[in-house]
């Protein structure tokens, strides 16, 4: 299970958002065993099931990119933090967990951009999240 919070219910809900995004945006995704990834700064993220490459498509930002499953999973994790953060914000804008979601998404984004990933991976990551 993904553990971003000490609140198990938030972690489960966040994980379901990530899986839902993958179902909607990753061509051919039908579930499977996920792998956990971690940046050199210690940021955890959910990686898609092992495959040579995955195609991520989103009408929300006109994204259509083929990349490796780790890059796609990291990007979808950032999108999920943002999506779930806005959902929680509408319900309770002053909640500490709401701010933490946005902070974790930004921290993961900058950790990836500062990583040793090559420019193609970073570019695919940005295309998915922007």
> What's the helical proportion of residues?
40-55%
CATH superfamily: Antirestriction protein
Which CATH class is shown? Alpha Beta
> What's the main sheet like?
2 strands, antiparallel
Number of strands: 4
Distance between the termini: 26 Å
Q: Which regions are unreliable across 5 or more consecutive residues at pLDDT < 50?
A: none
And the CATH topology? Alpha-Beta Plaits
CATH architecture: 2-Layer Sandwich
Q: What radius of gyration results from the CA coordinates?
A: 14 Å
Summing up helix and strand content along with how strands pair, one would put the structural category as alpha+beta
Strand order of the largest sheet: 1-2
Series of H and E elements:
HEEEEHHH
What can you see in these coordinates?
This protein is α+β, with helices and mostly antiparallel strands and 130 residues long. The protein has a single domain (8-129), classed as Alpha-Beta Plaits (2-Layer Sandwich). The chain contains four helices and four strands. It has helices at 8-25, 69-91, 96-113, 119-129, and strands spanning 35-38, 44-47, 54-58, 63-67. The strands form two sheets. It has a two-stranded antiparallel ribbon with strand order 1-2. Strands 3-4 form a two-stranded antiparallel ribbon. A hairpin with a 4-residue loop joins strand 3 and strand 4. The protein is globular, with a radius of gyration of 14 Å. The chain starts with 7 loop residues before the first helix and ends with a helix. The relative contact order is 0.17.
